[in-house]
């Protein structure tokens, strides 16, 4: 399947699209939340928190704790969670299969637009050997003050690339990310190849506004007519 529409740029989400961090974060967060009374299924946690900024995630958890009349996660909780995640990244973080090849074979502009904290975003891309492939076009929602599903980070990335939003292709694995790219006026591809997506997630992304959903970067390369 080859795409007939020409795109000038691809803007990638990071977590769950370029690196396998979503599966790690999901596991660690839910393991730490359960003992304090906040229990989520993998599907619920992913659909509600994937793609959000740190601040938005913490607000959501505080609201959920209030609904249950239990104390919300405190500062020490988040310190412990972040320490556990960084330790896991050192042992488990890898690039999603095919990411290097797709990025290297794409002839147009490209960037990363993520809700992750800037320092952590750069660290994950450096740890997986992806950072240098983007020629400095790595953008965190920290820069715009709004995380996904707000479109600001995608619009900022397009502006920095000097490419109109409607000529950009966004690649996203989360509902919040798909909504963000769609609001920005971009064509959005859903991605389920990050190792954390449950059966049926492809339809969830389509329902959120993804034009098509792909289970691998190789399939995206084929869609774009790139040499394998």
Number of domains: 2
What class do helices, strands and sheet pairing give?
A: alpha/beta
CATH architecture of the largest domain: 3-Layer(aba) Sandwich
The Cα radius of gyration reads 17 Å
Strand order of the largest sheet: 3-2-1-4-5-6
Could you give a short account of the major beta sheet? 6 strands, parallel
What key phrases describe this protein's structure?
single chain; 228 residues; Rossmann fold; DNA polymerase, domain 1; 2 domains; six-stranded parallel beta sheet; 6 strands; 46% helix; globular
Structure report:
Helices cover 46% and strands 11% of the residues. It has 228 residues and is α/β, with parallel strands linked by helices. The protein folds into 2 domains: 9-20 and 94-223, Rossmann fold, CATH 3.40.50; 23-92, DNA polymerase, domain 1 (Orthogonal Bundle). It has a 6-stranded parallel sheet with strand order 3-2-1-4-5-6, with helices on both faces. The protein is globular, with a radius of gyration of 17 Å. The two termini are 13 Å apart. The model has no long low-confidence stretch (mean pLDDT 92).
Quick synopsis:
The protein has helices spanning about 20-35, 40-50, 55-65, 75-90, 100-105, 120-125, 150-160, 175-185, 200-210, 215-225, and strands spanning about 10, 110-115, 140, 170, 185-190, 210-215. The chain has ten helices and six strands.
